[in-house]
Amino acid sequence: MQESDIQFLENSFKKYYFDHFDQIKVPERTSEREFGYQKFNSGMTRHIAIKDDKELHLMLIQNIPSDVYCSNAYYTFPNLPMNEKDWKEADLIFDIDAKDLNLSCRKSHTLSICNECSEISKNSSQCSKCNSTKIEKKSLPCKNCIDASKIEVSKLSEVLIDDLAVNKENIHVYFSGNEGFHVYVYNSQFQKIGSRERSELTDYISLRGAIPETFGMKKLKQDRALFPDFDEKGWRGRFAKQVFGSKSKRSKIITELLANGYASFQKTLDDVSENIGVKIDPNVTMDIHRIFRLPGSINSKSGLTKIQCNDLTKFDPYTEASFISDDTVEVFANCPIEFKLKNKKFGPYINEKITIPTFAAVYMICKKLARIA
């Protein structure tokens, strides 16, 4: 990224942190958390202890980070190296990202940027100009991406509340600032469990590794009575609704499943898991030492803010998470896809000099689709 672009982004981010510090969600038990940040074009600074919101505000204004992070873990000594921090417990966090949902719309709004000659083209694995395969993919997520991610958030909430007895008030949903959502679970019975147990939890939530016996199918001594009923709780009930469709079809479909045998049932179960299991990133949830993007901070992949969603159904990140100013700026834009921010349409732009609001310029520069004129 060019120096003039970095300067522009830093100025825009600094103004945001100065004007909108009220958006920053300073975590509870602040002094027990590890903080970290990144600056544009440089590495991560970690193992920072912060006492309160004043210290956090000072860190933001002094350093103007591209990204700010905070641990989900609580430590006795958050500023010491990892093996000396003395881990106490950690909030449970789930990451749902549109890029992991195998959506058909992705092809239409993913761009390929050549790292050799900077040529930008529609989604491809090779540069159309210099034939290089050193390609960086950038996506401009659409409404369908956000809606599909919301469905996974709703599915996750249902499993947490109905199956795992998590209190609804302790589940907080945040737009990640780019392509999905972070779901935080506070003050649950899972606070003190380690990485392995969290991994098992993600297997349950995503219905990964499910075996036919759990759903009534046995290799030997088959028994119709073992199959799930329509009104059962948990995954057995969800399986019944997905596979049987209605109570009246249950008996007929069980007969078919038994006739087709164990191996066929496993295939059916794998397909059902793919359809109704919650699509979360297991590596995120099982990592008890990770630092996560701080709620209220800007995501440098987009210039949008990581923001809490109080009404998920109505939430629109492209109006509600864009806080950068409306002042106009001149940029050279090469963005062959149309996008919408703050109810305004932008693009497509093919190597043109344009005057646009700062919030749209920041979005494109963060995506490497524009530079300051």
UniProtKB/TrEMBL annotation:
UniProt xrefs under InterPro entries: DNA_primase_S, DNA_primase_ssu_PriS
Cofactors required: Mg(2+); Mn(2+)
Active site (catalytic residues): D95, D97, D281
Catalytic activity, EC: 2.7.7.-
Keywords, sorted A to Z: DNA replication, DNA-directed RNA polymerase, Magnesium, Manganese, Metal-binding, Nucleotidyltransferase, Primosome, Transcription, Transferase
A molecular function (GO) term: metal ion binding
This protein's GO CC annotations: DNA-directed RNA polymerase complex; primosome complex
Listed Pfam families: DNA_primase_S
Similarity annotation: Belongs to the eukaryotic-type primase small subunit family.
Record-given protein name: DNA primase small subunit PriS
Organism in which the protein naturally occurs: Candidatus Nitrosopumilus sediminis
Gene designation: priS
